[in-house]
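Support request from a user on the community tier.

User writes: "When I paste my structure tokens into the form, the page sometimes reloads and wipes my input. The last time it worked, I copied everything first. Here is what I submitted, just in case something in the input itself triggers the reload:"
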């Protein structure tokens, strides 16, 4: 009875709408469902986790990658076991992971890398001689065995679908959000395109989790944008020679490369700091950001021959890799990451539209930092839901609003 009266009073269709059904949007929707009854995900593709959450290097970061950003390294170290535990069935831990330090052009040397790993508390030991021998000793100062895994984004998608279904979260596929607007009753109207029709729904909160399209939605809504840096990134998919089959290799820390297992295809990705990015662009006042258009229109001639030639200077055996094809995605990072390669999370309330939030996760395990941000938001804000003014409670996970 009480519930019926409450639902009649409701002036919105949903409590929260998440735009973008990548890993971040889906995971955020699951967190939100612990607080709200009516949560909707709008995704423009025909399935979830089709974009950056699929086309990436699949590394579950454990900190090694970030000797220039201690905070990111420590957050990775903390999130790694949690992620591996929570998504056990989506993790490939069957390979050995080696980090090598270049003698030339590297921003760290062996001693610094050892000290860094010690400080962060991540396991590091010299690689066995048969692995050391694979590297060019004139170019490489040291090779270490580390603990780092890969995730299988196809399995992650399956798991996310199960979790969303269980939580009874509504998902609108093939639904492209166009813009948002504050409505008179203090809700937000979300306009989206579905089957060639423009539709409108009302909601209390909107979370923009569209990664490379974050600014596009803001621009189309006449809202202040977030300064972001975009790059069209190519990761080559290769068949590695037998000696590299059960290995992942990263040469640190500068204009080098990584070879990582890519579980969904049973291949390896080859990324190279110099050759993976094809184009860069940044949001400016006069440039209308259209990352998805850039993604589909820009020429995609592979840089693989350059990347493999350079990689072979450090690890000659990579010459025996067979190129299969490439993954392409618009990598989106905060400008502050330029200097130290850090990967903080963006969780930003829009200055002109209070209940509209922009969310960007620099790497997959940052979802736990996202949970923290959401807790902070819900704890500190006095929010109005369907006419009931109340304080949000202190921890997520018990009763609903
Ligand atoms: C080349 C590359 C390599 C990377 N390597 C790693 C790595 O090894 N390890 C790691 O942890 N992280 C890595 N990352 C980062 C990681 O991929 C991202 O942090 C993560 O996938 C972001 O998830 P997301 O859900 O925010 O983005 P996405 O998965 O891109 O999700 C955004 C979704 O929004 C949808 N969308 C866009 N516009 C609209 C709209 N108007 N309406 C509705 N839906 C819309 C898109 O279709 C998409 O599904 C890499 C990224 C790139 C690009």
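"...and here is what came back when it finally went through:"
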């Amino acid at each position: 009875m009480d519930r019926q009266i409450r639902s009649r009073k409701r002036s919105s269709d949903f409590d929260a709408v998440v735009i973008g059904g990548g890993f971040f949007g889906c995971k955020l929707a699951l967190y939100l469902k612990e607080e709200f009854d009516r949560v909707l995900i709008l995704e423009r593709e025909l399935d979830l986790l089709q974009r950056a959450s699929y086309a990436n290097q699949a590394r579950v970061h454990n900190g090694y990658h970030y000797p220039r950003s201690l905070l990111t390294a420590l957050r990775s170290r903390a999130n790694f076991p949690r992620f591996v535990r929570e998504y056990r069935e989506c993790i490939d831990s069957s390979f050995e992971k080696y980090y090598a330090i270049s003698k030339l052009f590297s921003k760290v040397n062996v001693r610094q890398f050892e000290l860094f790993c010690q400080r962060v508390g991540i396991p590091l030991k010299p690689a066995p001689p048969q692995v050391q021998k694979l590297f060019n000793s004139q170019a490489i100062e040291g090779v270490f065995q580390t603990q780092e895994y890969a995730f299988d984004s196809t399995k992650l998608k399956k798991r996310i679908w199960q979790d969303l279904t269980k939580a009874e979260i509504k998902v609108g596929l093939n639904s492209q959000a166009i813009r948002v607007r504050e409505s008179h009753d203090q809700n937000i109207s979300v306009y989206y395109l579905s089957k060639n029709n423009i539709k409108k729904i009302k909601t209390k909160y909107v979370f923009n989790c569209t990664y490379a399209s974050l600014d596009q939605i803001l621009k189309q809504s006449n809202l202040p944008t977030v300064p972001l840096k975009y790059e069209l990134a190519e990761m080559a998919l290769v068949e590695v020679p037998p000696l590299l089959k059960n290995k992942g290799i990263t040469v640190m820390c500068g204009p080098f490369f990584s070879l990582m297992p890519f579980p969904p295809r049973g291949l390896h990705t080859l990324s190279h700091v110099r050759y993976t990015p094809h184009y860069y662009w940044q949001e400016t006042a006069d440039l209308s950001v259209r990352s998805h258009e850039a993604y589909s229109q820009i020429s995609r001639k592979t840089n693989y021959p350059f990347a493999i030639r350079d990689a072979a200077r450090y690890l000659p055996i990579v010459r025996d890799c067979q190129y299969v094809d490439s993954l392409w995605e618009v990598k989106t990072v905060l400008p502050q990451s330029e200097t130290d390669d850090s990967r903080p999370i963006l969780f930003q309330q829009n200055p002109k539209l209070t209940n509209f939030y922009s969310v960007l996760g620099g790497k997959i395990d940052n979802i736990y930092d996202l949970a923290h941000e959401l807790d902070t938001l819900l704890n500190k804000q006095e929010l109005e839901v369907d006419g009931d003014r109340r304080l949000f409670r202190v921890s997520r996970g018990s009763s609903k609003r």
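Agent notes: The reload is a front-end session timeout and is unrelated to the input. Residues 19-25, 42-45, 50-53, 56-59, 61, 176-177, 209-211, 213, 217, 233, 235, 329, 331, 361-365 surround flavin-adenine dinucleotide (CB under 6 Å). Residues 94-151+229-333 form a domain with the D-Amino Acid Oxidase; Chain A, domain 2 fold (CATH 3.30.9.10). Escalated to web team.
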